[in-house]
């Protein structure tokens, strides 16, 4: 069996981002790379969204950018605006096409279905796959989104709705999320923060149909595309000697589920330290976010009914401070402004 210098297990967002980062920076000119991916065909299956707090390699894969966003609860609505940090959505289909078109010109890069097809005994292995069984009793961010198209121009394409809590909560945290790509096309998503043990949260089709009909007041539309996913809001304990990347590499911000830009930073770190990466310090999110997210998720688990008002309070800070905090780029003043908006007793109880 053929040997490779590097192996990437999992050819999704994290694996392909790393391969692309290495390739465009000539790190694979004289090195071989095997990518282990069992899918037979790459098609659009995700929409990755984030605030653009730094430049990235995939600007040409962005479907749409927004500077204005809102949050709605039963009691109030708030709008925020940031000219400095646009919110962007990336089409995974465009991402896959871009990366694979680049990688195919390097004969040192090969795709395989399983790790057993190659000799990886002397390889540096990067892993983005969690083979262990999911812990359904813990908190997850699980969701289903549909891209809908209407005959009439209905949407305001200059503003997106980050969270709409005007829906059944079922003793968990539930909101809808609407990204208008044009005046007659939008991604509408139902999102839950809950465990995965109860099927009562998972009638996504009915939830979306009711929300579009009753909340968005849209009677006629067609569905162009559907996506579904579940992001663990905990870090898995992996028993391997690999360099873990992506969600299993703890690149997901647990309080938000945002992962894409963290993957890009991790990929850059690996590229810059590739020659000695096995001995380098593990790349991870700043400890303050890990600490604050741990407290925040305790509050989510123990006080789900209070979360709409807590999220609404977050929108009372300045937009750029809010975005920097959500994107792991906040300073002390930003952190303090966020913390002061939180209900003190509930968070102190979670802390102790």
Compact description:
The chain is of the alpha/beta class and 352 residues long. The protein has helices at residues 13-24, 92-103, 204-215, 260-272, 287-302, 307-314, 319-326, 332-339, 344-351, and strands at residues 6-9, 33-36, 47-51, 62-66, 68-72, 77-81, 87-91, 109-112, 124-127, 140-149, 159-164, 173-182, 185-194, 222-232, 243-244. The protein has 9 helices and 15 strands.
Can you lay out the helices and strands and say which pair or pack?
Blueprint: E1 6-9, H1 13-24, E2 33-36, E3 47-51, E4 62-66, E5 68-72, E6 77-81, E7 87-91, H2 92-103, E8 109-112, E9 124-127, E10 140-149, E11 159-164, E12 173-182, E13 185-194, H3 204-215, E14 222-232, E15 243-244, H4 260-272, H5 287-302, H6 307-314, H7 319-326, H8 332-339, H9 344-351
Parallel strand pairs: 1-2, 1-9, 2-8, 5-11, 9-15
Antiparallel strand pairs: 3-7, 4-7, 5-6, 10-13, 10-14, 11-12, 12-13
Helix pairs in contact: 1-2, 1-4, 5-9, 7-8
Name the CATH architecture of the largest domain: 3-Layer(bba) Sandwich
Mean pLDDT rating:
95
N- to C-terminal distance: 54 Å
CATH homologous superfamily heading of the largest domain: FAD/NAD(P)-binding domain
């Amino acid at each position: 069996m053929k040997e490779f210098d590097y192996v990437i297990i999992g050819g999704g967002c994290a694996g392909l981002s790393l391969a692309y980062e290495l390739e465009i920076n000539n790190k694979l000119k004289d090195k071989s790379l095997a990518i282990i991916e069992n899918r037979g065909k790459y098609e659009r299956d995700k929409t990755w969204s984030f605030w653009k707090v730094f430049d990235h390699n995939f600007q040409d894969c962005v479907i749409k950018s927004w500077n204005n966003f809102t949050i709605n609860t039963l009691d109030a609505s708030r709008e925020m605006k940031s000219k400095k940090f646009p919110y962007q959505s990336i089409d995974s289909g465009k991402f896959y096409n871009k990366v694979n078109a680049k990688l195919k010109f390097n004969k040192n890069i090969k795709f395989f279905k399983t790790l057993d097809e190659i000799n990886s005994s002397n390889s540096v292995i990067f892993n983005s796959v969690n083979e262990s069984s999911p812990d359904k009793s813990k908190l997850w961010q699980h969701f289903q989104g549909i891209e809908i198209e209407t005959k009439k121009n209905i949407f305001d394409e200059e503003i997106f709705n980050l969270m709409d809590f005007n829906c059944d909560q079922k003793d968990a945290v539930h909101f809808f999320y609407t990204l208008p790509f044009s005046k007659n096309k939008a991604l509408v998503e139902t999102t839950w923060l809950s465990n995965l043990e109860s099927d009562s949260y998972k009638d996504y089709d009915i939830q979306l149909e009711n929300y579009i009909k009753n909340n968005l007041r849209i009677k006629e539309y067609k569905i162009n595309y559907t996506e579904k996913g579940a992001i663990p809001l905990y870090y898995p304990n992996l028993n391997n000697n690999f360099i873990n990347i992506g969600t299993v590499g703890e690149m997901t911000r647990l309080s938000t589920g945002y992962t894409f830009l963290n993957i890009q930073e991790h990929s850059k770190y690996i590229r810059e330290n590739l020659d000695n990466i096995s001995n380098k310090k593990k790349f991870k999110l700043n400890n303050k976010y890990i600490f604050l997210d741990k407290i925040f998720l305790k509050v989510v688990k123990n006080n789900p009914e209070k979360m709409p008002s807590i999220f609404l309070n977050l929108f009372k800070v300045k937009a750029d401070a809010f975005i920097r905090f959500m994107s792991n780029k906040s300073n002390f003043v930003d952190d303090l402004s966020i913390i002061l908006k939180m209900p003190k007793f509930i968070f102190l109880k979670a802390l102790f």
